[in-house]
Amino acid sequence: MIKIVVFDADKTLWDHYNISIFKKPYKLINENSIEDSEGNKLTLFPEVRETLKNIKDMGLLLGLATWNLPEKTDEILSLLGLKEYFDIIVSKDFPFKFIFLIEIINKIREKGISIKPDEIMFIDDRRVHFGNTWLYLGNVKCVEIWSDIFHHKQILEKIKSF
Fold it and tell me: Could you tell me which Gene3D superfamilies the record lists for this protein (predicted)?
């Protein structure tokens, strides 16, 4: 049974490939889109907000594991009103997602919650992050968005199937 769903951010929650390049000031175009001072734009993928809310309503924890500068992640999530959904956010400027997941597991355990790798669902747009996740953590349920699933509502179905 899944206890936590951990998302990547870039190309998973929104359409931009790297929010670390964004420059202030940011402009909220609408509740789902942002533009920076150099014209870089990002837009949430359809159903993201609803899916995050539904996962929380299921009583599951939500995590974010993103290869971005932490201050950029915090600013973008806050501006989009998404930060409130996530129980644990790990944002670092290096590509080793399995280390992010280890940190998330440790933070969950610090809260007194027991968690095993097979109770984690990790959603990323790049399968390359799954190999080391399985090697170092074990049977984490990894889902490649845009390949294993094709829209965010399917995440709810995947949770139930695990």
Answer: HAD superfamily/HAD-like
For 111, 118, 141, the CA distances from 106, given in Å and listed in that order, are 9, 15, 18
DSSP for residue 115: -
Q: List per-residue pLDDT tens for the chain, 162 residues long.
A: 999 999 999 999 999 999 999 999 999 999 999 999 999 999 999 999 999 999 999 999 999 999 999 999 999 999 999 999 999 999 999 989 999 999 999 999 999 999 999 999 999 999 999 999 999 999 999 999 999 999 999 999 999 999
Residue 34 backbone phi and psi in degrees, to 5: -135, 145
- Select from 3.40.50.970, 3.10.20.600, 2.40.50.140, 3.40.50.1000 the CATH code of 4-14+45-161: 3.40.50.1000
Structure-token pair, residue 6:
């951990």
